[in-house]
Design a protein that fits this description.
With 256 residues, the chain is of the alpha/beta class. It has nine helices and twelve strands. The strands form three sheets. The chain has a six-stranded mixed beta sheet with strand order 8-9-10-3-11-12, sandwiched between helices. A four-stranded antiparallel beta sheet has the order 2-1-4-5, covered by helices on one side. It has a two-stranded antiparallel ribbon with strand order 6-7. β11 and β12 form a beta hairpin. The longest helix is centred in the last third of the chain and has 16 residues. It starts with 5 loop residues before the first strand and ends with a helix. 43% of the residues are buried.
Length: 256
């Protein structure tokens, strides 16, 4: 693929906590408009990889770029220098992040939660942001919950507000970290349905998930991680049906 097609490029990324190597030379490329789903057992490094893409985790070696720009660093000659916190925060406004635990502000209504970041982080006028926030709540099926507080919403509704909040920044990329793992089983589909709609609309998405059905239906590329490495990747029809690597075969045999 050409450089213009690549929205996310991860090259040779390493990350350790003390003696424990969490990421061991990860390479990944995601095209603009593509949906990539990352599967793998707990502790394989999936969430750390996702958090390194928007510099919530600082990598030890290698680099991440989004939209052609290095994330968290600038290059001077052959050396990478970390950006100031203010510059990193500005970069993050182009990368939506949906956490597994919702992370909504409990003292703000659904509408205020969605409107908060564009006003606070992007300095956009509140009067133009509020109609956008209402339309995003409508998009995730929650137009009637604009004035509800998080405690008045189900887990599935809270996660849909969190997705609307991520979209309010009008990001070029949205990262999802196991967005359904904290939900009761009957609430999972309402969140996955919203994500499927995003995928159809051409939103570039990287999703860490255990939802094999979602990966099969929506992903353009599925990555399987184990022990801090991407073991194999490919279209879902290939990887989920006829995996080549023994670790992938063993994992899928347990979850399918």
């Amino acid at each position: 693929m050409t450089d213009e097609d690549v929205m996310v490029r991860v090259r040779g990324v390493h990350k350790s906590y003390g003696a424990h190597a969490v990421l061991q030379g990860v390479d990944l490329e995601v095209r603009s408009g593509e949906v990539a789903v990352i599967l793998g057992p707990s502790g394989s490094g999936k969430s750390t990889l996702l958090r390194s893409i928007n510099h919530l985790e600082k990598v030890d070696r290698g680099y991440v770029s989004v939209g052609g720009a290095l994330v968290g660093y600038r290059r001077v000659g052959n050396t990478l220098h970390e950006l100031k916190e203010r510059e990193i925060l500005k970069q993050r406004t182009h990368i939506g992040f949906v956490f597994q635990s919702f992370n909504l502000f409990p003292h703000l209504t659904a509408l205020e939660n969605v409107a908060y970041a564009p006003v606070a982080a992007q300095r956009r006028p509140r009067k133009t942001v509020l109609p956008l926030a209402r339309s995003l709540l409508d998009r995730v099926g929650l137009a009637d919950k604009a004035d509800a507080y998080p405690r008045q919403l189900s887990g599935g509704q809270q996660q849909r507000v969190a997705i609307a909040r991520a979209l309010a920044l009008e990001p070029r990329l949205v990262l999802f970290d196991e967005p359904t793992s904290a939900l009761d089983p009957e609430l999972v589909n309402e969140v996955l349905d919203v994500m499927k709609g995003l995928a159809r609309s051409g939103t570039t998405m990287i999703v860490v998930s255990h939802e094999i059905g979602f990966a099969r239906e929506v992903a353009d590329t599925v990555y399987f991680m184990d022990d801090g490495r991407i073991v194999e990747h490919g279209p879902p029809a290939e990887l989920l049906t006829a995996p080549k690597h023994e670790r992938t075969k063993a994992f899928l045999a347990k979850v399918l």
